[in-house]
Design goal:
This is Sugar phosphatase YidA. Pfam families: Hydrolase_3. The chain is of the alpha/beta class. It folds into two domains: 151 residues, HAD superfamily/HAD-like (Rossmann fold, 3-Layer(aba) Sandwich); 106 residues, Hypothetical Protein, Haloacid Dehalogenase-like Hydrolase, Chain: A, domain 2 (2-Layer Sandwich). Helices cover 34% and strands 20% of the residues. It has eleven helices and 13 strands. Strand 11, helix 9 and strand 12 form a beta-alpha-beta unit. Helix 2 runs parallel beside helix 11. It is globular, with a radius of gyration of 18 Å.
């Protein structure tokens, strides 16, 4: 019996144009009408979720920042926030810059609303990278970026992809943080032990839902732990290898409303 559906957004629930299809909305509404919690679990910050909340009917619990921030979209209640400590992000930034002088950093703070970007970062960024106008990102010194704990600590290199950058971070042998990537052009550093699976486990504990009662959807490396944790992990046909390997099931691509297809089958008892 599935009591909670956890779904990634970009590359999963949303179509390639970032819209929520009519079929997907009907499937989400049908799941909610059947008494199933439907929870977005995303790398986006709350403002990015709010951009599509009305179209998807999201007005309850949401897990943002790759599971680091749990909040209720309707009441604003914060269930938890997990921060990367100053010492951990400082050690990472200095050690990595010694090896890669062109790497840049951002600290996302205060419920995801404050975005402290190092000088030069905004010139690399586009609105859809962070669902935020680059003009709002600031132009700060590294000292300013590192001054406070981060809900998410962003690492970006103009000359390396996230897949190329990740081994460089792991080779440092540092502790005190977790690191992942979501298909965006940067790495996403979280508090140690934090992932979408971790955040989902916190919410399920509050709601009294067992992991075997969770159906999760995803497409990217940052979804893999959640797909492996859930009783039913479903990867999209467009998913990266990490997500496919972690999931027990496969559905159609996000362009083909794969989440809706799987929910329809669930509700039909297939």
């Amino acid at each position: 019996m599935i009591r909670l559906i956890a779904t990634d957004l970009d590359g999963t629930l949303l179509r390639p144009d970032l819209s929520v299809s009519d079929r997907t909305r009907r499937a989400l509404d049908a799941a909610r009408a059947a008494g199933i919690w439907v929870v977005p679990v995303t790398a986006r910050q709350p403002r990015g979720v709010q951009r599509i909340a009305q179209a998807a009917g999201f007005d309850g619990w949401a897990l943002c920042g790759n599971g680091a921030h749990g909040l209720h979209l309707g009441t604003g209640e914060v269930l938890f926030e997990a921060h990367v400590e100053v010492a951990a992000q400082t050690a990472l930034a200095h050690a990595l810059r010694e090896r890669l002088p062109d790497v840049l950093f951002v600290s996302v703070r205060r419920g995801g609303e404050v975005f402290v970007a190092e000088k030069g970062y905004a010139a690399l960024a586009h609105f859809e990278d962070h669902k935020r106008d680059p003009a709002e990102m600031g132009d700060y010194t590294l000292q300013d970026v590192l001054a406070e704990p981060s809900l998410k600590f962003i690492v970006r290199c103009p000359t390396r992809t996230p897949r190329e950058l990740l081994p460089k971070v792991l080779e440092l042998g540092l502790t005190g943080f977790a690191v992942t990537h979501s298909g965006a052009p940067f790495l996403e550093v979280l508090a140690q032990g934090v992932s979408k699976a971790w955040g989902l486990a916190q919410l399920c504990q509050k709601l009294g839902v067992a992991r075997t009662e969770v159906m999760a959807f995803g497409d990217a490396p940052n979804d893999a732990e959640m797909l492996a944790w859930a009783g039913r992990g479903v990867a999209m046909d467009n998913a990266d290898p990490e997500a496919r390997e972690a999931a027990g099931e496969l559905t159609l691509s996000n362009a083909e409303d794969g989440v809706a297809v799987a929910i329809e089958a669930l509700l039909a008892g297939c």
